[in-house]
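Interim report, section 4.2 (structural modelling).
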Amino acid sequence: GAVVSQHPSWVICKSGTSVKIECRSLDFQATTMFWYRQFPKQSLMLMATSNEGSKATYEQGVEKDKFLINHASLTLSTLTVTSAHPEDSSFYICSASVEWGQGNSPLHFGNGTRLTVT
Amino acid sequence: AQSVTQLGSHVSVSEGALVLLRCNYSSSVPPYLFWYVQYPNQGLQLLLKYTSAATLVKGINGFEAEFKKSETSFHLTKPSAHMSDAAEYFCAVRGGKLIFGQGTELSVKP
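Predicted structure of the assembly:
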């Protein structure tokens, strides 16, 4: 149980274009999902908290107009990288919890999306 | 603020040897702690979590971790390393969000 599916697993796009990444909770509903970014050989950096039916909460330093997050249903959150540039190339990972309100409820992660901007 | 520190960015062991990955936490309240494993180009998989029900927590793949409040530690161990254990391991503490340590890369030599 508690499977999070992320799509696509990798994408190459040209500079200036936009890319959408989908994150789905397959066997549970998630009112809250999280988007992380990971640089090579580094830890995960929380970008934003996605809340179903409301605006996402972005971490300090993350451009909300560049990284658009939509959480339209209890099982789907999307991250759109707008006007992508080479420096946006990274590994993006989404996560969700069965019951985030419970302190010991773990996050379950998607398999990540490798974005390369040329 | 809550945080975790992983001691050692890289640990190398021989196959069959003990695995010890260190994690120390900082928290003003009883912490919720987790260990995750990440294989190359994949997401994170939960190994185990500390729920305060027991100080010794058993996880998947033969891993376990012991919560020691006096040492503010939550070290991950496995009695006998296997080649398939080679991966990146992250300790994390839960507050309003999940905060990760810097990660420890485990290498297993044949």
